[in-house]
C-alpha cells in the first residue's frame, strides 16, 4: 500500500462513490477504480461493494479507512515536526475548534499569538465536536478547542477558559421590556420561539437540558449556524441560548439583551486539548503557554506537560 492509494481510498469512502472521489481528486474514474482493485488484490478482502449508484464500505473497508486516516495524520505530523526542527520559523500550528469557539474566540487567540510569531503557519478546521476530536485522535491536528474532552480516548486538557451560556433576546422585544421590569417568568418563556442549533450540537444539548429543568416545551426553530441564530434573535424571531463569547459585541452595542432569570447564566469552560502522547508539537505547547501567561486561559489542573522543558 502507498500513501497515494490510501488518500484515494479515503476520498472514495467520504464521497460515497467512485465518481465523487475522482472529481475530488481531479483524476479519472478509471484511476480510482484501479486503486480499489489494487488494494483488494493486495489485502485479499472486499473493501467496497456496489450499492445502487454509489458504494457501500464493508467492515474491512471501515478498518482500512480508520487506519488510513491515522497514517496520513501521522505523516503530516512527522513532516511538520521535521521541518520545524530544522527551522522554527517553519513551524505549523494545527488546530481544530468547535463552531462557537472557532468563530468567536479562536481568532482573538490567534491574533495574540501571531503578533509575536508572525512567520508561523496555521492550519485551522472548524466543525462539530465529534469531528474535532476525531481529527485530534487521528493526528491531523495537535490541539482541539472544545468543551470538556471525552474520557477514555487519550486526551488531556492543557488549559481552560470560562464562558457562560446566556439567554438573549432582541433589544426592542417585549421580553427586553419585561426584563428591565424584572417580570419574566417561565410561562412567558414557554410562549416564545426558541432558536436552536441542530440535534447533536453541544449548545442544543444545553438548551434541551435547560428546557427540561424549567419544565417548559416552547416552539423550537432550528438554524444551521451560531451566526444565523444570533442574527435571527436580533431581529426578534425568538430567544436563544448562546455562548457569551459569541454575543459579546451585540450585548455591548445594545442590539441584544441578556435575560436575567434563574438558573441562568450556565457556566461552561472551553478546553485546549491535546493527546496524552509524549510527542506533542512544541508550537502547540507554546501556544497553550502563551494563552496562560497572557491571562487568556488558565492551567487545567496538575499539568506537567506545560511545565516540562521542550
Characterization of the model:
The protein is an alpha/beta fold. It folds into 3 domains: 3-66, Arc Repressor Mutant, subunit A (Orthogonal Bundle); 77-162 and 269-307, D-Maltodextrin-Binding Protein, domain 2 (3-Layer(aba) Sandwich); 163-267, D-Maltodextrin-Binding Protein, domain 2 (3-Layer(aba) Sandwich). 49% of the residues lie in helices and 22% in strands. The chain has helices spanning 3-15, 18-25, 29-43, 59-86, 99-104, 106-116, 129-137, 174-181, 186-190, 202-214, 226-234, 244-253, 282-293, 304-307, and strands spanning 48-51, 54-57, 92-98, 121-127, 143-146, 155-170, 194-196, 220-222, 239-243, 256-258, 266-275, 298-299. Strands 3, 4, 5, 6, 7, 8, 9, 10, 11 and 12 form a 10-stranded mixed sheet that branches. A two-stranded antiparallel sheet has the order 1-2. It starts with a helix and ends with a helix.
Key descriptive features of the protein:
310 residues, alpha/beta, Arc Repressor Mutant, subunit A, D-Maltodextrin-Binding Protein, domain 2, 10-stranded mixed beta sheet, two-stranded antiparallel ribbon, 12 strands, 49% helix
What percent strand?
15-25%
Radius of gyration: 23 Å
Number of domains in the coordinates? 3
Would you list the SSEs in sequence order as H and E? HHHEEHEHHEHEEHHEHEHEHEEHEH
Topology readout:
Elements (H helix, E strand, L loop, with lengths): L2 H13 L2 H8 L3 H15 L4 E4 L2 E4 L1 H28 L5 E7 H6 L1 H11 L4 E7 L1 H9 L5 E4 L8 E16 L3 H8 L4 H5 L3 E3 L5 H13 L5 E3 L3 H9 L4 E5 H10 L2 E3 L7 E10 L6 H12 L4 E2 L4 H4 L3
Parallel strand pairs: 3-4, 3-5, 7-8, 7-9
Antiparallel strand pairs: 1-2, 5-11, 6-9, 6-10, 6-11, 6-12
